[in-house]
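We treat protein structure as text, and this decision shapes the records that our systems exchange. We quote a single record here, exactly as it is kept in our systems:
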Amino acid sequence: MDNLAYILFICHVAPMLLMVLILRGRSRLLVGYMLIGVCVSLFVSELNTILLNQFNSDMLYVTTTITPVTEEIVKAIPVLFYAVAFSNNRDLIMPLAFATGVGFAMFENMVILVQNINDVTIGWAIIRGFATALMHSVCTVAIGYGICFVKKKRKLFYCGTFALLTLASIYHGIFNMLVQSDYKYLGFFLPAVTYIPLVLNQYRYYKSKKLEI
């Protein structure tokens, strides 16, 4: 990757890091996990560049079979670490998972924007913001949501975690395949169709907790 990505990384990370130092509690965790998402995005970009070169720059093959796996595994590691080492409380894991995906997508979008500044349009920005970025967040949230249940069942932890990573990778691969095909508009709407039930489920969950109190 060229120096431009590292310049953007520094510009993106520096203010977020300064913010983390003055925040406390859940706010610090959320911004911190967005920061982790940015760092993960830079690392995965380097890794994907190496893999793309290994497969003779076959973009379609790599983006539908290789990068979904690498990206979802690396994105999930911080979330899985927090769930295993600290807490698998759904009220905290879900926002942290979403923050990781958002940080990842923001940096990825920024790099692609600058590298293709002469070709991007408002439509491109809408698609990247409401489709691709949302896809990254939904995949990480799915793993975070699942780990809240899997961690409680020790016998299912390893196979359950593998299943969650597989699910996220397949979803990611399907999205990438659709947006590069004649059915790209189906791909653009796929994350939103998945996100809406997620929001409704969270709404019912928080509402039920208030009723219990």
Remarks:
- Helices lie at 3-22, 25-54, 59-85, 90-115, 122-150, 157-179, 184-212.
- The CA atoms of residues 105 and 133 lie 5 Å apart.
- The chain has seven helices and no strands.
